[in-house]
Fold:
Amino acid sequence: MNPCKCGMAGEPGHTCRKGPRCASDYQQRISGPLLDRMDIQIELPAVKISDLTLPASKESSADVAVRVAAARLRQRERFVKLGVGHLRLNAEADGTLLEEIVQPDQAGLKLMRDAADAMGLSARGYHRVLRVARTLADLDGRDQVARLHIAEALSYRQKLASFQAAA
Ligand SMILES: [Zn+2]
Structure:
């Protein structure tokens, strides 16, 4: 979504005609409970024309596709091993099954608990962070969800945290 009604909030040098309310009024149109159901909430700055002329990133789309296919295969094989072969992706795992497939290492678990308190995560939000962390570990080719994966998954929920702080 745009950051505000005029679409320019947060742009360097721009001040909305309605002031900060331009962004807060617009963003509050998405309710907290709806936003809580979104796994990844991040702010993206507008693309500048100068960015379009930069050399392409080192990892091609084809390279990324290979990594994603491998991560999906890991998920599929894990579910088969656990006797729930009708499931394919982490997105389909809930409750106790989700807790069974995530099980972060000690440091990851501590970070998760501290962050849940500090960010005021709901039970749903907590599970969503775990699920994203599981997928990040799969993309990394790891069986164990580590602190690094939890930290990255938490960083993708910054937006909701700032919404709640502003409300
Ligand atoms: Zn605006």
Notes: The chain has nine helices and no strands. The pocket of zinc ion is lined by residues 4-6, 8-9, 16, 22 (CB under 6 Å). Confidence is low (pLDDT under 50) at residues 163-167.
